[in-house]
Amino acid sequence: MTGTAAWVLDRCDDLTRYSAREDALERVYLSPEHSAANTVVAAWMREAGLDTETDAAGNLWGRRAAAGAPQRPATPGEPALVLGSHLDTVPDAGRYDGMLGVVLAIAVAHRLRHTVLPFALEVVGFSDEEGTRFGKALLGSCAASGQWDAAWWEQTDADGVTLREAFTRFGLDPGRVGDAARRPQDLVGYLETHIEQGPVLESLDLPLAYVTTIAGARRFVLTVTGEARHAGGTPFARRRDALVAAAHLVTRIEELAVAAGCLATVGDLHVQPGAVNVIPGRAELTLDLRGRTDADRDALWERIAAAGQEIARERRVTFEHTETHRAPSTTCDSRLSAAVASGIAAVVPGLDPALPGAPSDGAAPARVPGLWSPAGHDGMAMAAVTGVGMLFVRCRDGISHHPDEHVELADVEVALDACTQAVLALAHQEAR
Ligand code: GLV
Ligand code: MN
Ligand code: MN
Q1: 272-289: pLDDT as tens digits
Q2: How many CB atoms lie within 10 A of CB 243?
Q3: How far apart are CA 113 and CA 108, in angstroms?
Q4: Ion ligand 2 residues within 5 Å by Cβ
Q5: Residue 212, SS3?
Q6: pLDDT, position 1
Q7: CA torsion, points 105, 190, 295, 218, in degrees to nearest 10?
């Protein structure tokens, strides 16, 4: 049953076993679970007729030649169409964000294993899309697109382990990370299937959409420093409470983001010394910013930084920031998007493949919906070396980054058909 939607969902269930926690799914970059997941997914790739390899940044690749025979990944010669997504997760994750796209890509490769294509076909399981461990997201796809920045080596995880040390412990050589870079001339495109992670498809009562653009994101660590003192002995006028200042900042960030039409999230907060009878002397917050355009997002950041300084003055604390991640917004490639839209129109009744998406007037067939993705994806990095296309699959209640993440079998069935049709549409174009 390899290659069916039921197989895809069963394999997403299987992957929940590779977790750092017994009670929840958490699989971060360069962890023992990352290694174990790569091993099991590589076995599924080989069943689908792909040869496999883990690259110099821990990404897992599978490949077959145009004629169908397994072939070592990154073999020079025939350029490859790459299908895939990521295998890492956020803490207490759902089972489909990332994993669905990798496993579905393997199912597509299995379905096409006897089909001669005008390009090699590769499947990738990227190793770090979320940035859960080191704060910097898209590490796997940045390595694969030749955008590794040496400044990242000293970023640390929550235990103080640097990225460089984590590489070595995983059995990777930091000095060879450049070997993971793929060359534009070896790639036909990167096509990713992903759950929508939002409510739009559900509201349209449609299972699938193609993606038009992916939001540009920036992430920061914000540090507010005041003074730790006795909770009983310090009158309010003498306090320099870092947490109260941080709390004001958090609500201000939300107000500014709403006014700017952007998204801003403080997702983590640590207070020191963290005792019931000590006024907090230091608060460290993470900030994730996203906007439809990079200019909107950057203008919002300027306002947040100014608000941080203003609150710091008022409350006699200091405000500092470190940027941990920045990715530009990405426009999907028109050729890949057209192939995805034609794949969707071929399998979802009542849709017209014409681009761009527009609402139906009721009489004519509805256009295939094209959605903006406020969530980040590996395509943001891969766009530096090849065209990127994305297929979105409806997920229940739009919920993601939560264990309740859910996709319907029937939606995965049409996603599998649509992705296969998209590959065939690209093959047809390429062969002309
Ligand atoms: C990835 O899921 C992101 O958008 O943060
Ligand atoms: Mn995610
Ligand atoms: Mn994802």
Answers
A1: 999 999 999 999 999 999
A2: 19
A3: 8
A4: 97
A5: strand
A6: 81
A7: 50
**Phi (first) and psi of residue 38, to 5 degrees:** -55, -40
| Closest of 134, 147, 40, 129 to residue 86, by C-alpha | 129
pLDDT digits (tens, 9 = 90+) for 173-203: 999 999 999 999 999 999 999 999 999 999 9
- Whether residue 376 has its Cβ less than 6 Å from ligand 1: yes
- The token duo for 166 is 């984590």
- Reply yes or no on whether the pLDDT at 364 is more than 70: no
Q: What pTM was computed for the model?
A: 0.92
Contacts for 233 with CB less than 8 Å, ≥ 6 apart: none
Q: From the CA of 90, give the closest atom in ligand 1.
A: 2
Specify the pairing of strand 269-272 against strand 282-291.
antiparallel
pLDDT digits (tens, 9 = 90+) for 235-272: 999 999 999 999 999 999 999 999 999 999 999 999 99
Mutate to test the pocket of ligand 1, among 27, 128, 287, 377 (most ligand atoms within 8 A of CB): 377
Model pLDDT, residue 247: 98
Is residue 380 within a helix (H) or strand (E), and if so which, with residue range?
A: helix 379-382
Residue 124: pLDDT over 60: yes
Angstrom distance (rounded) from CA 142 to CA 180:
9
Q: Does ligand 1 come within 6 angstroms of the Cβ of 378?
A: no
Count other Cβ atoms within 10 Å, centred on residue 1. Answer: 9
The CATH homologous superfamily for domain 5-214+329-431 is Zn peptidases (3.40.630.10)
- Report domain extents, the chain: 5-214+329-431, 216-327
User: How confident is the prediction for the chain on average, in pLDDT?
Assistant: 95
Q: What is the DSSP letter of 368?
A: P
370-373 and 208-214 as β-strands: parallel, antiparallel, unpaired?
Answer: parallel
CATH number of 216-327: 3.30.70.360
Q: How far apart are CA 207 and CA 261, in angstroms?
A: 27
The arithmetic mean of pLDDT across residues 49-67, rounded, is 98
